[in-house]
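Entry:
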Amino acid sequence: MLKPHVWLRPPHWPGSIEHDSESDCRAWFESYREFILHYAALAENARIDALCVGNELEKTTAREADWREIIGSVRRVYHGPVTYGATTSEADAIKFWDALDFIGVSAYYPLVEAPSPSRADLAAAWRPHRARLVALAVRWRRPVVFTEIGYPSADFGAWKQWEVPRDARVNRELQAAAYEAFFDDVWPEPWFGGAYWWKWFSHPDPGEPENQFEPKGKPAEGVLEKHYRKEARRG
């Protein structure tokens, strides 16, 4: 899946984008339409399996008509499945899921507020979030795909992942336990369509600190391999 991101200078992020006037909003959507159609053409030419038309732009998605126009324009260029990557707080409020092929969610749900919770506690913490996702899938008759999910290999890595400080104590076992809990409690669900893990770098040595999200070379990588091999055998 091709998922173009709009990057902002920290502490801002895509969810910070909002507009003070109707003219500013229209100008933004015109600019964004040009941006995403460029990537739609790339996706079509490269025969990409799926395209995410937006990511975590939570203060813009109340503009249902504008997003439906964007999606329609994308579909005239790219002929594969399309989705939008919603934050956990906006997924229930989006009213244009019917225009998309699956429901995309950046699944950064705070699970357990503890430095190193057990796999069982993490799996149990998924259950209220899972109930909301089931209701979303049933309401819109669409599978749910996690357009992002991940945990830093650090203390408190399964609680408000975006707030874990870069100097947090390394905790590879917590990351692996959080991966296992996902496979225990979410992966088997019939409404669930798959997950894109944050973050696997294409560069062999990206220079990331040990306590960040990448699972490569950590126990979490073994969790992925085990479950994906199991899935391949089942298929």
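The chain is about 40% helix and 10% strand.
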